[in-house]
Specification:
Elements (H helix, E strand, L loop, with lengths): L8 E2 L6 E3 L2 E4 L6 H7 L8 H9 L5 E4 L12 H17 L2 E5 L7 H5 L5 E4 L1 E4 L2 E4 L7 H6 L2 E4 L4 E6 L5 E5 L2 E6 L12 E4 L10 E2 L11 E7 L6
Length: 231
C-alpha cells in the first residue's frame, strides 16, 4: 500500500486528516469526564479545549466520524445544554458539518436538528471515499461507489519503547488494504481503509490494531501505521 497515493493530507501536530475541502476527525466523546470522575478521578471539563482544537483546523467544512457523546444513556438536560452550546459554536465556525452517527450518539438528532448546516447521517460518500463511524456495516450504495473507506471507532495507537526501556502509547493513523466478503458484498469496490485516531486525547484506545465493527468481516491483506510524526 502506498500511503502517498491516498487522497488524504496530514499535518504535524493534528489529530485530523484533510480530504479536499474537508477536515476529518474521529471520536470526540464529549462528557467523558463524568464517567472518569465517577471512578474516583478528578478530571476537569475538557469541552472547551476540544472545541478549540477543532476550530484550529482552519477549514470551513468538517466531517466528524461519530461518537460525539461519551454516554450511551439518554441525553439528560445538563448534557443537552452542553451539547447545544458546543454545536452552536461549531455551526457558527463552519459552513458545513457532516456527522456520521456512531454507537454513542443516540438522541443526537434532537440537538443537531436546530442547526441548518449540520447533518447527522449514517454514512457520507464524497468522490471515491466512503465515510462512516465503523461500528456498523456499510450500505450497498457505499460499497458500490467508494473504493476507500474512512472510519474511526477503533481508537488505534502504537506501543513504543524508548531507549530506557519505558513503554508509552502514541495515537496513530492506521492504513489497511482490505477486501469485503464477496458473498455479502459481491459488488464491493472497497480496497483501502484509513482509520483515524480519536480526536479526544484523554480517552483510551486499542493497542496496535483490534478488528471491530465492519472490520470483523473484512479480509485484511496488509496493514501499517503512518510514518508521520504527527502527535
Amino acid at each position: 500500500m502506498d500511503i502517498d497515493k491516498l487522497p488524504f493530507r496530514f499535518k504535524k501536530g493534528y489529530r485530523a486528516t484533510f480530504f479536499e475541502d474537508y477536515a476529518v476527525i474521529g471520536d470526540v466523546h464529549l462528557g467523558f469526564e463524568e464517567e472518569m470522575n465517577s471512578r474516583g478521578y478528578n478530571v476537569w471539563e475538557k469541552t472547551d479545549e476540544i472545541l478549540r482544537s477543532i476550530l484550529s483546523l482552519k477549514v470551513k467544512k468538517l466531517i466528524m466520524l461519530g461518537d460525539l457523546r461519551a454516554n450511551y444513556i439518554a441525553i439528560r438536560p445538563k448534557e443537552g445544554g452542553h451539547l447545544i452550546k458546543f454545536f452552536s459554536k461549531l455551526s457558527d465556525s463552519f459552513d458545513e458539518i457532516i456527522i456520521t452517527k456512531g454507537n454513542h450518539d443516540g438522541g443526537l438528532e434532537k440537538i443537531v436538528s436546530r442547526f441548518n448546516n449540520i447533518q447527522l447521517i449514517s454514512e457520507f460518500i464524497h468522490k471515491n471515499v466512503g465515510f462512516m463511524h465503523g461500528h456498523a456495516l456499510p450500505s450497498m450504495k457505499l460499497i458500490k461507489e467508494a473504493d476507500i473507506l474512512c472510519i474511526s471507532h477503533l481508537h488505534p495507537f502504537v506501543l513504543i519503547r524508548d531507549s530506557n526501556g519505558v513503554y508509552y502509547r502514541k495515537d496513530c493513523f492506521f492504513f489497511l488494504r482490505i477486501s469485503l466478503p464477496k458473498k455479502t458484498y459481491p459488488a464491493s469496490k472497497v480496497s483501502d481503509c484509513i482509520i483515524v485516531p480519536k480526536f479526544n486525547p484523554y480517552i483510551g484506545g486499542s493497542e496496535e490494531f483490534e478488528p471491530k465493527g465492519i472490520l470483523k468481516y473484512a479480509k485484511i491483506e496488509s496493514k501499517m501505521t503512518t510514518d508521520l510524526e504527527i502527535f
